[in-house]
Amino acid sequence: MTVLAESTCPNTSKGKYPWIRHRESRRVVGDDVYVFSDGSSLGGFGAVLVQADAAPLVLLGYERPGPTRNIAAELNGALLGLSNVRADASVVLVADYLGVAAWLTQNWKIKDMIVRAKIDEIKDVIRANWLTVKYVHHRGHQKPVEGDDFTAYNKLADNAATRANSERSGQR
Fold it and tell me: Domain range holding 36?
């Protein structure tokens, strides 16, 4: 079976998800553009674009939650990030929701029409901008440790999603 995604979580890459291989490195390295995305059940979503030795670009957005709530926000975070990457880039999309990688690599069936529309929109951005994308699942809400860029940037994306909710509701 071809490996189509990676996970920094050893348990995710064992048995139940044979299409995921374990990824040891949690560092932002090389020429790739790393997109860390996250979403909130309240409708906020965020993305952090990072390249090695460059300051991160933090993006946030809001879409009124519908029936798919958090799932739509997670996918909106990925869409926001990928939409802001330069054309013809090599991208590592890091999300704490496994469904982002699973649906985009066609390893999970899409049963919901809202999810289908979001996945199609993301795929359209990838095709239109000639992006080469590698998908990485990274468990969210971990305590950052030295040398773990993924947890630090995932937290930034999570904070952006939360901030989008606050700004939308007028709270600060």
Answer: 5-164
